[in-house]
């Protein structure tokens, strides 16, 4: 918390290549963990920074029914989170993803769409004000875009042969900068000191709720990416994804939560990951050597 009594959380894992349900799951996970971690404190302001809001808009345009179901789940968790901090200003900052920078306009439209379609400051008449805004005028990103457009005017790179800058931007979006607290791109997006750990850079502290070891092997952290992509407990319901061709798919949230889309089920899942797992096939114990 800084001198102004403000907590800042960041969902820093690049999400431009995954579906919007993964992004909503990650935001809900971050909020639920923060709700427990800061229990008993009363911050004046909480800021949640998330990239790739364009994924939400894309899902809305492609599949309105699925968007509604997933976003209701997110709404419920958000309402519960806000009610735990009465009088706290909650701010969502949408930042353009580094690998999809030219879609800044789409990010702005997504933020405006969420604000227009979902007046979250009026949900259940909770007392906490909520605002949505898009942080798009980032100097580092602007410079990158100008150079990229200038390069395209002279020579258009083929999709199979990206230039070095594209590779670097892609690597940053997936893995995060080596020192996210001091990196110019990261600090420009966050604007304020970060609190707690992020999915792409875990600090040496006990795993927060939702990050217990996964019951599939007892050692892998139950991260969002692992649960939706890698966990063998959901192998049959998951279509193999190809990150290199940008054809990422995942286990639907409604499948994981067994169609229980009320916030209590979400909180139980995040606080005790293995409680919500419904294995499709039994995993035999390892054979002794």
From TrEMBL:
Native species: Multifurca ochricompacta
Compositional bias per record (Polar residues), positions renumbered to this chain: 170-184
Protein name: Uncharacterized protein
Region (Disordered): 153-204
């Amino acid at each position: 918390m800084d001198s102004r009594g403000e907590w800042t959380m960041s969902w820093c894992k690049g999400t431009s290549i995954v579906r919007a349900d993964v992004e909503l799951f990650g935001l809900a996970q971050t909020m639920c963990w923060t709700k427990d971690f800061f229990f008993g404190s009363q911050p004046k302001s909480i800021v949640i920074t998330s990239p790739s809001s364009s994924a939400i808009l894309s899902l809305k345009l492609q599949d309105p029914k699925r968007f509604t179901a997933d976003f209701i789940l997110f709404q419920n968790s958000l309402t519960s989170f806000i009610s735990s901090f009465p009088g706290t200003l909650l701010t969502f900052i949408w930042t353009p993803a580094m690998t999809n920078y030219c879609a800044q306009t789409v990010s702005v439209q997504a933020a405006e769409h969420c604000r227009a379609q979902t007046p979250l400051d009026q949900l259940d008449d909770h007392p906490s004000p909520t605002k949505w805004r898009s942080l798009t005028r980032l100097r580092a990103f602007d410079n990158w875009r100008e150079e990229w457009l200038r390069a395209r005017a002279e020579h258009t790179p083929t999709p199979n042969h990206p230039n070095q800058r594209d590779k670097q931007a892609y690597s940053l979006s997936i893995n995060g900068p080596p020192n996210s607290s001091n990196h110019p791109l990261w600090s420009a997006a966050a604007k304020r000191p970060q609190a707690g750990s992020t999915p792409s850079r875990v600090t040496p502290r006990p795993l927060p709720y939702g990050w217990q070891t996964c019951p599939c092997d007892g050692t892998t952290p139950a991260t969002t990416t692992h649960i939706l992509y890698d966990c063998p407990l959901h192998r049959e319901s998951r279509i193999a994804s190809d990150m290199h061709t940008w054809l990422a798919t995942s286990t639907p949230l409604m499948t994981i939560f067994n169609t229980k889309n009320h916030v209590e089920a979400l909180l139980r899942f995040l606080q005790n990951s293995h409680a919500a797992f419904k294995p499709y096939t039994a995993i035999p114990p390892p054979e002794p050597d």
